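User: Hello! My lab partner asked me to get a predicted holo structure for this protein. The small molecule is pyridoxal-5'-phosphate, SMILES included with the sequence. Please write out the structure tokens.
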Amino acid sequence: MVGYQMDAAVEKALAEFSLPEDLGFAKVAAPVMFEAEYRDGSWHSGVLKPFGEIRVYPNARSLQFSEVVFEGMKAYRYRSAPPHLFRPIDHWKRLNGSAERLGMPAPSLDLFLGGISAVVSACSEFIPQDDEAFLYLRPFVMSCEPGYSVVNSAHYRFYVVASPSGPYLSGEMRAQIERQDVRAARGGTGTAKTGGNYAAALRATSKAVQNGYSIALWLDPVDRLNIEEFSGMNVFAVIEGALHTPSLTDSILAGITRDSVIRLARHLEIEVVERIIPVNELLENIDSGRCKEVFATGTAAILSSVGEIGDHDGRVYRLPSCDVADKLRSELVLIQTRNGTDPFGWTQDVNQ
Ligand SMILES: *Cc1c(COP(=O)(O)O)cnc(C)c1O
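Assistant: Hello! Below are the structure tokens for the protein in complex with pyridoxal-5'-phosphate.
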């Protein structure tokens, strides 16, 4: 692994930082960040810097055209052991896929892991060790080239920024079915982790929040008949003891937590069915009591139970149980935090 030097400014930023009592989720910025440049057709070695504002032209294409892709991942540190990561290579692969969809260059695995290791190692004493606390990592690639022509850029930067975070408690979520807007189109960028998808989701989410819900449940963009995912999280329903989740389409983001839950559930001999799930069928199954449980999966909250689903006609469907979600969540947390065995080889030391 390439070592990144700490200059005096980085040493000073680290020395001046202290961990606040109340961390919340990704509210506090870690004192350092990693930055590498792509110029003249290749990536150049990066540097650790104090966390702070970055300079880009106001007409940079990342700002004007959302020419930006990102990841969200976690580093953990418990019982004074060195920090470790959860499925970092899968996050790198997905960043590559997202970049590829947008025609952008992605960092090599060495540069990606090097940047992450540099930040995590420098911040290792600021990774809270309480139960389920973590260092949230946000690696991203953005275009820094100014201009309005609709072609890919020649100048990009790769950053890793981080946030020491306390346990993410989403509470019980209330989801509102979105019947008007769509998040991502067929053949669009729904499989890429990129800002534009989030921009498309903002109005529906704000509307849901105004109506007393916490999140929007998206339907497929063509017929708006089948459930796809939440904004930023994938969806599972427990129907008569089996886990059902929408099969991946090109308008669904393939969550790493989704994949982990599917593999872990099969390992625990819970049946998993990936299929097209019509929203009306799901609602009928909740009405008849065949489906008592729906949950969301994503890196931040891991697994989060949905207590109610509201429809546009004002009907509210109540989900009385969270047993399967609780069980899968605690099993997954044991693996992620290295408090249990990891039969899948999902965790990895930082300085490997
Ligand atoms: C990141 C993301 C998810 C969840 O992915 P994880 O890898 O589990 O964190 C789901 N949907 C969307 C739209 C996302 O951006």
